[in-house]
Amino acid sequence: MITMIAAAAENRALGKDNQLVWHLPNDFKRFKSLTTGHHIIMGRKTFESFPKPLPNRTHIIITRQKDYKAEGCIVVDSIEKAIESCPKNEEAFIIGGGEIYNLTLSFADKIELTVVHHNFEADAFFPEIKTDDWELINSDFQSKDEKHLYDYTFETYIKKQKTPQ
Fold this sequence. Notes:
- By secondary structure, the protein is of the alpha/beta class.
- It has a single domain, classed as Dihydrofolate Reductase, subunit A (3-Layer(aba) Sandwich), CATH 3.40.430.
- The chain has four helices and ten strands; from the N terminus they run E-E-H-E-H-E-E-H-E-H-E-E-E-E.
- It has helices at about 25-35, 45-50, 80-85, 100-105; strands at about 1-10, 15, 40-45, 60, 75, 90-95, 110-115, 125, 135-140, 150-160.
- The strands form two sheets. The chain has an eight-stranded mixed beta sheet, with helices on both faces. Strands 2-8 form a two-stranded antiparallel sheet.
- Strand 3, helix 2 and strand 4 (about 60) form a beta-alpha-beta unit.
- The longest helix has 11 residues, at about 25-35.
- Keywords: Kinase, NADP, One-carbon metabolism, Oxidoreductase, Transferase.
- GO terms for molecular function: dihydrofolate reductase activity; kinase activity; NADP+ binding.
- Its EC number is 1.5.1.3.
């Protein structure tokens, strides 16, 4: 199963200048609990935004750079090769960034989305989730508090099965 996981604002903003524009500790905890022990697929810029590789995950980096090296990571030049690098019987996660999300939406079976209830200026955006293609199966609203400046909702979508005409 291929799962996209992201946090996006109401205007679908993901970040600016290769950085998140909010800090939601509970979203980080959710990301860690869902992705630990799995393969994570990302673009080169997303990988380079981390201070070091995320522990207990197999990193698959998609890049057009021919000589790109990242110690301990799998480097590929296409979405298809990234997906082929993942075990077939395990969940793998697409973790961004914006360009990778747009390229992989058709490959995904599930979306784990944190909706940040605010609009932000950004240069990377999550693709629109079309209700014809996706079904919301879980929604868990969280109110802002001393550690979270914004209200947010954890949402889970599954791809609708197309019925033959």
